[in-house]
Amino acid sequence: MPLPNRHLTSMLLRREGELFLFDCGEGSQISLRRLNLRWKKISAIFVTHSHADHVTGLPGMLMLSAQVDRDEPLYIYGPPRVTEYVETNRRILEMYINYEIITKEIDDPSKPAVLYEGDGFHIRSFPARHTRTCVGYSLIEDARSGVFHPERAISAGVPRGPMWARLQRGESVTLNDGTIIEPHQVLGRPRPGRKVTFLTDSVVAPGLEDEVRDSDLLICEGMFDESLRESAESKKHMTARDAGALAARAGGVEKMGLIHYSPRYTDRDLKILLKEAKAEFSGSFLSRDRMHIPIPNKE
Prior knowledge:
By secondary structure, the protein is α/β, with parallel strands linked by helices. It has helices spanning 28-34, 52-55, 58-65, 82-92, 150-155, 162-168, 208-212, 229-234, 240-250, 270-280, and strands spanning 11-15, 18-22, 42-46, 74-78, 101-105, 113-118, 121-127, 135-141, 173-174, 180-181, 195-199, 217-221, 255-259, 284-286. Strand 9 and strand 10 (180-181) form a beta hairpin. Helix 9 (240-250) runs parallel beside helix 10 (270-280). The model has no long low-confidence stretch (mean pLDDT 93).
């Protein structure tokens, strides 16, 4: 349930000025306003599942977007019935919508799938295991070209100017004497792109380690402490220790932010969850409303 100082689950990811929202819990638009973010820049919303605490902010968000002169379509991705949820709310609430809403349901949520492709990255879904059909999501960037070495270009006889730019883009160039210079001759080794993973409402299940591996940032639910393991398992949620162990076993995870806390924990009590997660994975931290987490490029 939402608390006065803790809204329901959502994560906003900003990449190169483009915004992606993962889940839209009650209160999401309040945080957007307080952060002074331009929600009309949200390209797509990705819904993990249809439990109310993950979608109750969506109707307000759709109506709000009609007030900001949105020109581009808004894409909404999710498991089956996300279209029904959106269309039913539009009809019953008689929403005024002056832009195109395109819903895309995941054909088979039990299998990983690439849902969205952009310039230099893609967003994929993968199956989670909850009491209702549920998925997690990862934004994964393509590998970036290696560092350009001007001294190598000069040594190879490549004149300064457009040819340097073409080599940096990964294109070969031909010199006046017919010599072909390949990018690998002047570039360092390719640099891996970044990866952000959002996983909530799931027990630990086969395949999750592979999906979260090498995440620069993993946002993962840690709803209960170990004293409530029986409740966690019956409701198909992770404990904070489960989340930490998943990050540790997966390998390559830089840091993991816990999210989706049970309302039984006050802000002061959350240190219990953090302690249990850190016992398994030292890179664990507590995510908070409107927390800003920079993810630098890998060099």
